[in-house]
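Example 3.2
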Amino acid sequence: MRPRETLTQSRDERLLQVRLACPDITRACDLARTFADMVRHQRGHLLLEWIRQAEQDAPKPMKGFAGFLRQDLDAVTAGLTLQWSSGAVEGNVNRVKTLKRAMYGRASFELLRTRILTQP
């Protein structure tokens, strides 16, 4: 998934050997790199074409992934296009879940509430 120019020479050579040995891996690798580029550069307008290509001639797992993307196409396109992110919200949700698990069965709801509200 790394950009090709960041690979060491030995890894680049190994990747070339694997790609030459298996056409399915070559196609999956190409599609994965294209998808990663869409994510990195927020090019959601290219998503539908990527899905069509993946559904047409990709290995079965990649076709399945493309099918799942198609099921929620508007949301995935928005996520790959818009500048807003729910990352901060997800981080807080994970923090609360971690606190809750650490205190499970040992403390009251009031203590949990206090710990959640007092931490930054």
